[in-house]
Amino acid sequence: MSALLEIDAVTRRFGGLTAVDGFSGVVRRGERVGLIGPNGAGKTTLFNLISGFTPVSSGEIRFDARVMAGMKSFQIARLGVGRTFQNLRIFPNMTVFDNVSVGAIGAAGHSVWKALARNRSAAETVSAGTWAALERTGLTDLAGQLAANLSYGRRKYLEIARALALEPELLILDEPAAGLNDTETAELAGFVEGLNADGTTVLLVEHDMGFVMSLCQRVMVMASGRKIADGTPAEIGRDAQVLEAYLGTEEGT
Amino acid sequence: MSGELSKSFPRLAPLLALGALFVVAPLVLYASGSGYAFRVATTIGVFAILTVSANFITGTTGLLSLGHAAFYGVGAYTAALSATGFGWPFWVTLPFAGLVTALIGILLALPTMRLVSIHFAVATLGLGEIIHVTLLNWVDFTRGPMGIPAIPGIAIPGLFKASDVSNYFAVAVIAAITVFVIHRLTHSYYGNALRALREDDQCAETMGLDIVRLKIEVFAVSCFFAGVAGALWSHTTGYISPNDFRFNESILILAMIVVGGLGSIPGAIVGATLLLALPEVLRPIGDYRMIVVGSVMFLSILFLPRGIFGEVSALDLMRRQFGAAWRRDGRVGWR
Asked: Crossing angle of helices B211-237/B35-55, nearest 10°?
């Protein structure tokens, strides 16, 4: 499997705080990779670095062998990186269809002239991409609803649908199972597995260990900005350093 | 059933709107028997262009512009100076004023493109003041507080002479074109991109939207039509002075679009009509009328915070009735 996302000795400092500290890791095409770690380990910061929200202080991130330094987040998105957010960031005053269409517009590009001329092919590309993403997430019947009226669980799928409308090669999910009950979590795991089977590479952050260990083929563990382990769920479960990071060391007093 | 209906009368609403604008309204105004009614209607038309263009940037895209009246003034002065100085006819000064205003708008707004919310609002407030002070004090060029008199009216030699009626129809035609253009941008997928920018600009960028480019385009379009409205004001009133383009006017425009419904094109038109027609209708009660106008503004915001004709219902109506609806079954789909 070829590398899709390569993170090479990436560091991000905020003033005196080093949120991500020389992190290196690879996500290969077609993989389902989990990123875990205690609160404050720098997982979300790493996601923000990958999607171009924040620039790296040093190091290099490559997507599909292209260096992403200096790219704006919309350019990274158009390369094929779709993401969701830890705290849901849907567009509440827009309908479900219109929310999802934003991803499709991002993929197709937007032009004031084409909109003025009512360019048919541009509009149909957006429309087709939106309906396809709605169908994949089971939101078709809710297309005309205001996003603000959706249940919490549906909003999660709405965010995923919006990212899918970008037709991403890499889908980054930030705590997708947070706030879901066991049934919903199991359903989501099956759904993400289906997306992956259809060819989308998945990288996700999650605190729900059961979810990560059953869904992901490989897990990277982060603590204090550094990567402390990288392996299959079984290997991670045995790793002494991981146990230490989560449970702390035994200290003689 | 309703689907079949809308198929058999796909363009009913636009026809009704055009009929009201070009047939019913002129007849009613004519029946009232005075040029005065036409002048009020002309003012409403100019302000409708202003509110629809201001709503595009402030309501749809969510960038609170407090300098709209200043760009309106740039257009008015461009038209007035080129008409009195070079003798250009209105059909040249109108697009010229629009282009000059768009250009000045982009140049001034470029440094503000990274700003959002209140920061953008204060920056546009500053731009508006700079423009107003320039109009007031660059006496050699703008004649300063004396203003520009004797601006030729809207006439085509050999076809029709300048009159209250010709003014009305010119403003009506330009207002219809403005609404048409802004409608296409607002109710297409492009409008979705703008609303996403309003809801959460950072998130919108993560979805692949070039937000700086969108902001520049919106600013250019909005300023273009503000400039055209200014040119119409110059030609229909014949006299302009810097006082017409002060901060108060920006606030009035803002009040109109908020009362009408932020993000809604019909709302912007309703707001402009209401706040301009009401003082005229209430003229018999004298000075009390401004109290009534103020109360209408206050109560409408209190009871209809999303406006008289809010965005959600406006989007639904406009998409269905004006041929911009998205359909799941049809191959044409949503556009």
From this structure: 170
